[in-house]
Write a structure and sequence with these properties.
This protein is an alpha/beta fold and 370 residues long. The protein is 38% helix and 15% strand.
Length: 370
């Protein structure tokens, strides 16, 4: 390293496949660097890497996650994914990436070689078509639609495939028993069933009142299918994560003293901020982006993070006062884990550049165009 400020490394990935990712290693792309993804495929790639990091924590770098052979023994992987050897990202059938059709995807899943992600521009009608094709073939593959986020085809129970922000926390080791939590499990099972079948109308006459309340809350406080209720509800048992979230809330409002548990009321589920003057403010008054970023900031403070941390950094609703602290937390996190970001605004990019320039030794800031 030189004595001057650290200059960002700019990399253009021309091939979105295994060989393309291996080219990153040839450019001396360090697992310790923080990477900002840009380009038309950045969102797809970030979502795929997020699920890979959540379900295969044995991988130690971004490019290794996309290589054909995991570098670690099977016991390093989470249960159910020890035999995973293959990954592909697809759009709708007419524009499937990597030149692989759904039949080939299903065949590979059936052979036990891996799993697939179907992401974005994927309508409810597409969901039904693929599900019906699986049924016609008598497929053993599980298909779990999640219209606001990735869809996994694999062999795990659907209730464990719900894409929530709490999954991000689980991947960091902060909520290792999340799905076994008896307070949360019934909720995730109902939400999984709703997403999986797509035909449930929770607002129909006779629908359970609690289900309707959950639907209302999910519509109000979710982003890309990640439900913030679950994360907030479980988060409060962990002091190491509760403190950073409260600190972030106090950046928004210095009078904040705490956060209530979700309650079912006349207007559905509510989460309220408590203030030092006795007031209570519904969290719904904050933007989804601000709430999600507060949780992600807490993730960065986890005691035992996963080796790969992937975040969609779109923060249009993020208050200006949170940008610099988050950039500093991301810079600190990159000392311990590999961080990959996409959807980065000019303001956050500038803050990251400043954070890395102030500490020339150690990880670099990498901009990867895909």
């Amino acid at each position: 390293m030189g004595d001057g400020p650290a200059r960002p490394l700019v990399v253009k990935l021309r091939r979105l496949d295994v060989e393309g990712f291996r080219s990153i290693e040839r450019l001396s792309w360090s697992p310790g660097d923080l990477t900002v993804l840009t380009g038309s495929r950045a969102g797809d790639l970030c979502a795929a890497a997020l699920h890979i990091s959540n379900t295969a924590r044995g991988w130690s770098s971004f490019s290794e996650a996309f290589s054909g052979e995991p570098p670690h023994p099977a016991e390093r992987f989470t249960d159910g994914y020890a035999e995973t050897r293959w990954f592909a990202r697809l759009g709708p059938p007419e524009e499937g990436a990597l030149d692989l059709g759904y039949e080939a995807i299903i065949e590979r899943v059936e052979q036990g070689h891996g799993w697939a992600i179907v992401y974005e521009r994927f309508t409810q009608e597409d969901d039904f078509e693929l599900k019906e094709m699986l049924e016609r073939q008598g497929s053993r593959a599980v298909f779990t639609p999640a219209h606001k986020g990735p869809v996994l085809a694999g062999t795990r129970p659907p209730k464990e495939q719900v894409a929530t922000l709490a999954d991000d926390l689980t991947a960091l080791g902060a909520l290792s028993a999340f799905y076994n939590d008896k307070r949360v499990q019934p909720y995730t099972e109902r939400l999984a069933g709703w997403r999986r079948h797509g035909r449930i109308d929770p607002s129909a006459e006779g629908a359970p009142r609690r289900f309707e309340a959950e639907r209302v809350f999910h519509d109000r406080l979710s982003e890309d299918g990640r439900n913030l209720v679950n994360a907030l509800y479980s988060l409060w048992d962990f002091e190491a994560l509760r403190a950073p979230v409260l600190a972030g809330l106090r950046v928004l409002d210095p009078t904040v003293t705490g956060l209530s548990f979700p309650l079912v009321g006349e207007q559905g589920l509510t989460v309220a901020l408590s203030h030092d003057d006795g007031r209570a403010t519904e969290l719904a008054a904050m933007s989804d982006e601000a709430v999600a970023w507060l949780l992600r900031g807490a993730m960065l403070c986890a005691v035992s993070p996963a080796p790969l941390l992937v975040l969609d950094a779109a923060e249009d609703g993020l208050p200006q006062g949170l940008i610099a602290p988050l950039a500093a937390m991301l810079r600190a996190a990159s000392e311990r884990v590999q961080v990959v970001l996409t959807g980065v605004s000019e303001a956050l990019d500038a803050a990251l550049t400043e954070a890395f320039a102030g500490a020339p030794e150690g990880p670099r800031l990498v901009r990867l165009e895909v």
